[in-house]
Amino acid sequence: MTRDRTPDSHDFPTRRYDLVKEFVITLVVVLVASLGLAAIFSSPDEKPITMSAWANADPNNLVTTAASELAGTTTSATYGAPYNSNSEGQKLGPIPLQKWGGVRIPIDSADLVLGPLSNTTNDPAVSSAVAAWKAAAPEQQTKWAADYVDAIGAAAADGEAATGAGGDPANVAAGDYGPVPALSAGLLALAKTGGLEGALDSAGNFYGGDTTKSLLLLADGAYLEDQAVAQNLAGDQWGMMNEVGNAPGQPWMWLYTFWYQIKPFSTSDNADVEVWALMMLLTLLLMFLPFIPGLRTIPRWIPVHRLIWRNYYRRSAGRP
Amino acid sequence: MTTSTGAKSAAETTDPGNWTNRLRGRIEGLVPPGEALPDRQPIYVASWIYVFGVLTLSSLAVVILSGCVLAVGGVQWWHVSSLGHYVNSVHLWSVELFFGFMVIHLWGKFWMAAWRGKRAMTWVSGVLLFGISIGTSFTGFLSQTNFSAQWIAGEGKDGINSTGAGAFFNVLNPGQMLLWHVVLLPLVVVLIVLIHIIQVRRHGVVPPLDADLEG
């Protein structure tokens, strides 16, 4: 290891310099630039997606999602920590980091449907459906819901044939689905009234500052993602750094987003934790670069510093 | 008998057991005398690249100022007020400028190998500041209470949860994210900025590579 022979900066000849004046001028410049950019380009503010909008735009999907929550087959139902213990979650090699975080935000996916409907007292059909569901054995509940989800099926897409009723609950084959159709229809009706978000997030506590349940339910459906894909915001569309419209978003996250676009991360079941681990490693490399032989010498090999300090070097070269 | 209320005895000012004296000594020793706000700089400090550090600092001031104005109106204000929307735009664009200037500053310091001469921890605090600033802006995007916030929360939760941190840092909870954005993370950012500036003033601006005082 070579010894650092950098001289003390305080031993060099000096020139006049006004730090405070420099700060004030740059402050004015940045303020004017920010005011100007804001006036010219504004900032995006697309209204949030409401459950009512989802219910009206894609009611079949909301019904299917509700039945899937009851069946325990949605993304959130099978997520693992921090919401439940229904999967191991992502692993970094053999290390179950997600599981180690623990189930600290416990959410039963069926409660995303039953919770709001349990407070509905003006619809006897829904009330009796909730009672029938609660009276059934867990195995029976799951069978009803899973059978109903299968019966609804999905529309033909991406070269695959339609299944079940092609995604339309109105056309499902006759079968024993227990109270699930009534529960799903009840959630759809509640969503259309505009009261589902409040029933999920603020029931019993008045203040609704935590939207975890609403966002999980919304993300379990297809409507939110469809809207995002239409705005080029999906994960494989560099979505984490993009904003709606032409707004710049978070370009400083380009490297984080980049890894999701390439293999092995783009096809890995553990992509999130792998990308995080890689970014942490790269950040630590950057942070401790001064201590890493080779990397810390790059500025000597590529002499950009000759440009930065060209006046100093020119003056030094001319000294007797 | 005469008494002096202004003059302190030597024992009073040097008493090592006095916590106030020790703290004052620590503070006074952070930066060499006259170097906290000097009116002169080494002769080699003559490049536009040096401006980007202070531009970053100025941008942070505008970010905080515009954020404070937004805080006056509350979480939903910018959705219903044209003035609020404009202030939000100022906040957004000052953040964009902040990161732009910071990245240029970082690259400038890289090509200067600015960690030389016992300045490694200055580099470390700068990179730490960059990382925490990204986290701070991320919580801001989560606090927008609009479609972007919904989507970013839905996507972001998978990354955070995969590390186990989601159990404590719930990106689906805008109330928690807003408090992190307007209180906790800005405090950390400002604290590290102060440490970074003290480090810069303590060691002075790094001399050019291969600079020779005796040449």
Question: How large is the radius of gyration of chain A?
Answer: 29 Å
Computed Rg of chain B: 23 Å
Shape of chain A: elongated
State the secondary-structure class of chain B.
mainly alpha
Report the uncertain regions of chain B: none
- Our measurement of the CA-to-CA distance between the termini of chain A, rounded to an integer number of angstroms, reads 32 Å
> Quaternary arrangement of the chains shown?
heterodimer
What is the total tally of β strands of chain A? 1
Contiguous low-pLDDT stretches of chain A (5 residues minimum) are none
* Helical content class of chain B: 55-70%
Helix content of chain A: 40-55%
- Gap between N and C termini of chain B: 63 Å
Mean pLDDT of chain A: 92
Task: Give the overall pLDDT of chain B as a whole number.
Answer: 92
Distinct helical segment count of chain A: 16
How does this structure look, described?
The complex is a heterodimer of chains A (320) and B (215). Chain A is mostly helical and 320 residues long. Helix content of chain A is 50%, strand content 1%. Chain A has helices spanning 19-41, 51-57, 59-71, 97-101, 111-118, 124-135, 138-152, 180-193, 196-201, 212-220, 223-230, 254-259, 271-287, 298-301, 305-308, 310-317; one strand at 14-16. The model of chain A has no long low-confidence stretch (mean pLDDT 92). In chain B, helix 3 (51-73) packs antiparallel against helix 5, helix 5 (82-111) runs antiparallel to helix 6 (120-142) and helix 6 runs antiparallel to helix 8. Chain B has two domains: 47-112; 113-205. Chain B contains eight helices and one strand. In chain B, 66% of the residues lie in helices and 1% in strands. By secondary structure, chain B is mostly helical. Classes of the chains: A mainly alpha (320), B mainly alpha (215). Chains A and B meet through strand 1, helix 1, helix 4, helix 10 and helix 11 of A and strand 1, helix 3, helix 5, helix 6 and helix 7 of B.
